[in-house]
Structure formats: structure tokens, C-alpha cells
């Protein structure tokens, strides 16, 4: 007997993502899904962004990690709300995991939720968490070939942060060629070359991040 | 790397529907996988063998139909297969073509036998 199913394997995840969106809409909250390979500098970028924007934006962070709580501990030191999600081996966060973490955050008293996904440039791109926008993080030390090799995440992202800019002179990373490839993959993509260490480019990135926060959550003083 | 998570979903669907149809053994499972999903057939096969053990689909043949990435240009109407990372229209240069094929990821059908 032949049984036709024709069911999308992402259907259950997408249903959970819709539920997350409904919850977030009630609070008027925007969620950023931060995606990048291991060691691309996602946590350091967040640390620096929190340090620069912490007096104007109340961050709620969901930290994805396979086993450890190290990244969450780093961010907690900055006085922001952090919920740790351990995937116990899984290579990406899914909407059900984020659905469990969201109510653990004080949603009424944060302005922006950032989900730091598990370090991985491939799988997280395929799983909708209920976020409003994806941000791809790529460090100059990873090499210029990554957008062409892992196109999905760059195609889906609204912004791409090119990190570790201070190391650029020591690498073969071709900044202009990568900008060209990113534009070919996604003409609307906003690209922010930054160094969290020196602070170069961080101002433009932080201003963009601030602009993603809905007006009713915007601090009166602006930026 | 997300192939194991995807295969868990496949096997759950197959188990549920096989039971609903009174099938005791599944002999063939057919998936459709677009290349833009970056789910690798070899990893899907490995996951199918590993996770299928002890289920109704143990020993079944896994057939994977891969679909190339196809884009359609909204300006000039050309349909084409992109050469990554260039997704723009090769004829008129339009930069935001529409994806018409390549994001598929679904369980198409399965075949099985009932107890009789």
C-alpha cells in the first residue's frame, strides 16, 4: 500500500514559531536571532552591544549552547536578563526550545530579545524560532568563502556583522569581495564590519540595532 | 547536521500514518529535498538507518529526490539555476529574483505492508 503524506518536515516547528510570535506580539517585542559559526564572536559582539546600549535598552537574552553555561555567565555579569538553553548535542535551536525560554524572561520589562543561536552557520538558518529578523555573524578569520559556501543564512538575514575587523591585516579576508558576494546573495542585506575589541564600526551597528526596536519601546531620549 | 532532527520528524510521521492505515512494515520512504535547505542526502540516509532501527520502517528503502535551486526573475521572466553566490538574473541583472524551487523538505509518500 502506498500512503501519500506530502507533509513539510518543518511544519511542527513552524507552528511553534507562530505561537512564539503571538506571545511576542502581545508584548510588542522584537526578537533578533543571532547566527554564526563557533568562535565567530557572537557573545563578544553581544557583550559590547550591551555595554554600549545597556543604559538605553533593556536586553533579554536567550543563550543557546550545546552543553555549557559559559556564555550566559559572561552576559549575566553585565546585569542583563539571560535564559540558558542547552540543546544537549543538537546543532541548532528550534521554536519549541525558544517557546520554553521566552516565559522565563520578564517580557513586560525588556525592550529587545536577542537569541544567540548555537555556534553553527548551517542548521540554524533552517529553523524559524518566531524571530523578527536574523543577523548573520561572520569573522574575518573564518575566510572569504563562507557566504558562497553557506548561502542560506546570508540570504535570509536582514543584517550581517563582519567581526574581528582589527585582525583584518593578518588575514587573507577580502572585505570588498565579500561585500560583493553578500550583495549578490541578498541585495537588501545591511553589512556592518566591526571590531568589538577596538570599538570600530560598533556605533553604526548599535544604531541599527536600536532602530529595530518598535517605537513604543524606544527610549524617549533616542540615540 | 540537522538531518537527525529532520529524520526524527520523518519517522514520527511514518509511524503515525502506518498505524492509522494498519501497516505493520514499511518498505519504502520517499523524501523531497531542495538543495537550498542544505540537508545532505548521505547524512539523511545515515540518520534513517540509525533512527529507524526498532521502528516500523527498519530496513526500508529511503528514496531522496533532490531538487535544484531555481529562481524566476520578476522583471524579465527568465527562470534559471543560479551559480552561487550570484542570485541575480543573468539576463537583465534584476537583483531580487523569486525562489521557485529548492526549499522543499517534505515526506512525499511511503509504502508498506499490512499484517495479512
CA distance, first residue to last residue of chain A: 65 Å
Q: Regarding CATH, which class of chain A?
A: Alpha Beta
Number of extended strands of chain A: 8
Largest interface: A-B, 36 and 33 residues
Second rung of CATH, namely the architecture of chain A? 3-Layer(aba) Sandwich
Name the shape of chain B in a single word.
Answer: elongated
Distance between the termini of chain B: 39 Å
The neighbouring-strand order within the major sheet of chain B is 2-1-6
Describe this structure in words.
The complex is a heterodimer of chains A (223) and B (116). Chain A has 223 residues and is α/β, with parallel strands linked by helices. Chain A has one domain: Rossmann fold (3-Layer(aba) Sandwich), CATH 3.40.50.300. Chain A is built from 8 helices and 8 strands, in the order E-H-E-H-E-H-E-H-E-E-H-H-E-H-E-H. Chain B has a domain of 80 residues: hypothetical protein PF0899 fold, CATH 3.30.2320.50. In chain B, strand 1, helix 2 and strand 2 form a beta-alpha-beta unit. In chain B, 26% of the residues lie in helices and 33% in strands. Chain B starts with a helix and ends with a strand. Chain B has a 3-stranded mixed beta sheet with strand order 2-1-6. A 3-stranded antiparallel beta sheet of chain B has the order 4-3-5, with no helix packed on it.
Amino acid at each position: 500500500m502506498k500512503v501519500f503524506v506530502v507533509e513539510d518536515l518543518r511544519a511542527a516547528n513552524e507552528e511553534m514559531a507562530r505561537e512564539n510570535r503571538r506571545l511576542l506580539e502581545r508584548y510588542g517585542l522584537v526578537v533578533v536571532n543571532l547566527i554564526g559559526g563557533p568562535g565567530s564572536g557572537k557573545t563578544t559582539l553581544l557583550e559590547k552591544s550591551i555595554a554600549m546600549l545597556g543604559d538605553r535598552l533593556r536586553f533579554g537574552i536567550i543563550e543557546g549552547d550545546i552543553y555549557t553555561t559559559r556564555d550566559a555567565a559572561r552576559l549575566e555579569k553585565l546585569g542583563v536578563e539571560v535564559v540558558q538553553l542547552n540543546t544537549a548535542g543538537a546543532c541548532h535551536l528550534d521554536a519549541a526550545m525558544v517557546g520554553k525560554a521566552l516565559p522565563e524572561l520578564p517580557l513586560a520589562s525588556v525592550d529587545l530579545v536577542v537569541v544567540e543561536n548555537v555556534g553553527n552557520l548551517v542548521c540554524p538558518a533552517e529553523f524559524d524560532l518566531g524571530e523578527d529578523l536574523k543577523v548573520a555573524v561572520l569573522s574575518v578569520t573564518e575566510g572569504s568563502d563562507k557566504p558562497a559556501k553557506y548561502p542560506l543564512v546570508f540570504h535570509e538575514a536582514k543584517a550581517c556583522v563582519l567581526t574581528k575587523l582589527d585582525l583584518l591585516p593578518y588575514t587573507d579576508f577580502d572585505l570588498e569581495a565579500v561585500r560583493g558576494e553578500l550583495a549578490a546573495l541578498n541585495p537588501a542585506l545591511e553589512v556592518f564590519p566591526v571590531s568589538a575589541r577596538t570599538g570600530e564600526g560598533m556605533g553604526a551597528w548599535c544604531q541599527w540595532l536600536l532602530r529595530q526596536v518598535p517605537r513604543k519601546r524606544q527610549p524617549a531620549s533616542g540615540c | 547536521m540537522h538531518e537527525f532532527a529532520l529524520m526524527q520528524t520523518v519517522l514520527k510521521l511514518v509511524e503515525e500514518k502506518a498505524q492509522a492505515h494498519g501497516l505493520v512494515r514499511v518498505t519504502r520512504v520517499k523524501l523531497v529535498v531542495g538543495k537550498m535547505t542544505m540537508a545532505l542526502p548521505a547524512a539523511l540516509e545515515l540518520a534513517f538507518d540509525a533512527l529507524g532501527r526498532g521502528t516500523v520502517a527498519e530496513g526500508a528503502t529511503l528514496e531522496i529526490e533532490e531538487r535544484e535551486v531555481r529562481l524566476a526573475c520578476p522583471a524579465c521572466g527568465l527562470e534559471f539555476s543560479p551559480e552561487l553566490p550570484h542570485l541575480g538574473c543573468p539576463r537583465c541583472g534584476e537583483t531580487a529574483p523569486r525562489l521557485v524551487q529548492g526549499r522543499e523538505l517534505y515526506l512525499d509518500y511511503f509504502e508498506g505492508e499490512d499484517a495479512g
